[in-house]
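Issue: ligand-bound run for 7TS - logging full I/O for the record.

Environment: standard queue, default settings, no custom constraints.

Inputs:
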Amino acid sequence: MTNNNFDVDKIRKDFPILNRKVYGKPLIYLDNAATSQKPEIVINTINDYYTQCNANTHRGVHLLSEEATEKYEDAHVKVAGFINAEGYREVVFTRNTTEAINLVAYSWGRANISAGDAILLTEMEHHSNLVPWQILAREKGAELRFIEVDDKGELNLDNLDELLSGNVKLVSLAHMSNVLGTINPIEQIIAKAHNAGSLVLIDAAQSVPHMAVDVQKYDCDFMAFSGHKMVGPTGIGVLYAKRDILEKMSPFLGGGDMILNVKLRESTWNELPWKFEAGTPSIAQGIALGSAVDYLTSIGMDAVHGYEHEIVSYAMEALGNVGGLDMLGPPSNKRGGLVSFSLEEVHPHDLAAVLDREGVAIRAGHHCAQPLHDKLGLAASARASFYIYNTRDEVDKLIAAIEKAKTIFKM
Ligand code: 7TS
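Outputs:
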């Protein structure tokens, strides 16, 4: 199926970096799950901010500060609309997904998790949705439970009721796996978790950049994602949480901007979301995240998802014809736009190094999901991850580069 409305040639022109050469060859950037490239509109927003209205937010009574504050606040409104939050007060800017999850672990977790409580995760989590809960569980004497990954690379939900029994206070899981590509049935899991009295955090680092996401429809309590994976800059991420939950939570960091009134011995907190944004924020990055949202919205998230589905299906078909290559995870209709694989005895780092010389950038390693690789019996894997500017021609070049690597490694 070809998506006629999706003009990849036009989109490519928006990304200046795609003009550069790598070892004299055109750059084929297939490491989008690590970070995406940035369109001109986002780069220009950062430039405009520093050349036109650089000033601190929420402080100065002067025009530049007013402009910076308005743009920074407006970016929260744009993000709220993008994920269909009820409003910008439910949108806290953080540095990245990792910081958003840690905010929940430190603020909500320390107040609500006690000895004997349980936190339910899955075996496919990125370290940033695992380690904060390990730290919290150890500190509080809480139990960590895990939804298993089956041999198709999907969550085994057969024993979900059992896993949710007892004192499960939080279920925290990835919307989409950064290794397997699996899109998890989060609505079903959220409904069951709520029935069992648990809150749910969705790690949406790999979904928000690639598909339409609706926090009200999902009814998740928390959602975390990063600006840099969705054509925005680094240094800016998002924690969404339901307003009544955020109202009850204590601040994560204390300092300037997050207070209403400060006395020597006590203080009161600012309104949401500023209560959770202590100190001078990443102003340029926040405003540019707003531009990233504008850019993706102008393409349409259903179109983004549809195009990536086409590309990953094409890639999986082609990779399936490469002898000795094993793909991880489910068929393309159950996944987003990435595919991880192994190539017999060739170490993924060696494969990635050969591909790099051909201009093809992929990721090799455990992709910050070591327990999942342990489960799969692999020390590492290679991963090609796609975005709106990748083409079928680039997939063909990826395959040609893998075939070249096979010759070099005498496969
Ligand atoms: N959760 C998932 C599912 C991710 O894929 C990542 C980053 C994170 C959380 C953390 O995001 P950060 O912005 O806070 O670092 N994933 C990857 C990756 O797959 N390769 O590099 C980073």
